[in-house]
């Protein structure tokens, strides 16, 4: 079962896909070497993203907070694929990814595959490096954020979630299990 933070991530990215947008280009063949993958892409951002990243903070409009001990949200960039999940036991969900370093702020376009293997409507995140950290932001309302400023959903504007990741040598470990309690 997905944790609320991961569910928020999934809901936000799915809702950010919107309707009527032009799908991203088809993903690179499996095992293709990393390289520029979109307008203005440079190998340096794509190369810098490669590998595992573990979430170290999240802001949904109430300030950046560390994840609770029972959460281990992770990203894994491999060539032109991005997989994200919530623990080492979670196989994650894989998307084709395209970097646009010419955009301001820089964007990631994530294209999931449907059950039939065909590309689904793309999702867009903004990203930036902050020292050794990777910040991503996305909106649950379909509008691409223009800054890394989280906000709670309002009647007139969708919420924006900002997540902070740090590079990890491997997939983060499974979260600690919560002790079972009895209501006797």
TrEMBL record:
Q: Is Cytoplasm among this UniProt entry's keywords?
A: no
Q: Which UniProt keywords apply?
A: Signal
> What's the protein called, per UniProt?
TIGR03067 domain-containing protein
Residues of the signal peptide: 1-16
Bias-annotated ranges (Pro residues):
24-37
Q: Which organism is it from?
A: Gemmata obscuriglobus
Supply the InterPro entries for this chain.
Answer: CHP03067_Planctomycetes
Positions of the UniProt region annotated as Disordered: 22-46, 165-184
Lineage of the native species? Bacteria, Pseudomonadati, Planctomycetota, Planctomycetia, Gemmatales
